[in-house]
Amino acid sequence: MSFQNPVFIPGPTNIPERLRKACDMPTIDHRSPLFGQILHPAREGVRRVLKSDSAQIFIFPSTGTGGWETALSNCLSAGDTVLAARNGMFSHRWIDMCQRHGLGVEIVETPWGHGLPADRYEEILTADTGHRIKAVLATHNETATGVKSDIAAVRRALDAAGHPALLFVDGVSSIASMDFRFDDWGVDVAVTGSQKGFMLPPGLAITAFSAKAMAATDTATLPRTFFDVKDMAKGYANNAYPYTPAVGLLNGLNEACGMLLAEGLDNVFARHHRIAEGVRAAVRAWGLELCAVSPEVYSDTVSAIRTPEGFNATDIVSHAASAYGVAFGTGLGEVAGKVFRIGHLGSLTDVMALSGLATAEMVMADLGLDIRLGSGVAAAQDYYRGCRIETRKAAA
After folding, report:
1. Are residues 171 and 281 both part of a single domain?
2. 341 among annotated binding-site residues
3. Is 113 helix (H, G, I), strand (E, B) or coil?
4. Where is the Aminotransferase class V domain (predicted)?
5. I want to staple 42 with a disulfide (CB 3.0 to 4.6 A). Which of 119, 182, 254, 376 is the partner?
């Protein structure tokens, strides 16, 4: 692999030099007021990125998986039931975690490539008159299939059923890249990580808790120590952690939030959509299809691209790495060997995306697929140029 080439995996993402420098800092006393000048602005920045006025932000030295465990262990008790759809590898892993924690899971099996079935959620929640379901799990962006789901529709399902269950949302590959509305969607716990839209190295589990979720921590009995949000809140009150924090990453997170907010969240989301649309134009020009079944569920952070029947899509990823020093994502779970993934999130531009598309074309041609060099790149170029022309017209 080459350190000079950008990566096109759905995380970890490319790290801007500004953020690399922010993470590279001298040692400070992490129990001093100086640390508070990093910690509290970082938490406030995350809250603003989530579009929340009141969420409690808790940041752990971990990854998104640790964030999932934080949500479960702080809000639920052994034997509780949760409702979840399995529509990809990461929703599957969250279900597995629930089961390992002794939770009952009502699973709605959903074809991979489809979004969350909010209508089915509403039916199940309406029938649950005894309110045995304590939480609904929703994966906003299924990274394995390139599928985004409508979290507002899941909230409407809960409201229509008059159900008090908590709403937990996995926003690991969506938050800070695609529009996420913690307050408007009535999210109770949101989970993400540092290595995706925040453009940092892995190492931080970033969580947000609503007032309702915080109230649930008073009665939840699942074991928790490292991920205890009450311990964390006590530490925050004293500009500290209950243990040693990842100071450099937190400083990077503070800087990352500043970059995102300075660009403007609407501009960040529009940039991701534009780049993704260019990738999708290239896929159509190649004569290939996405794993996502329809435009309303297309992800703006990752595209999972189906290859022809009988072709091992993993060969594209391995050949790109060995021949051209470029990283794409492999297929996972049910779509392993059937798709390769192009990540288009975080620190990325139209020009960078074009380099990834050009590499993918060379790789597929090398491997004997019927791909005309330049076809996908040209389709993406046409789209990107059209966007620029429309922008200039609007500004005139």
Report:
1. no
2. yes
3. coil
4. 30-330
5. 254
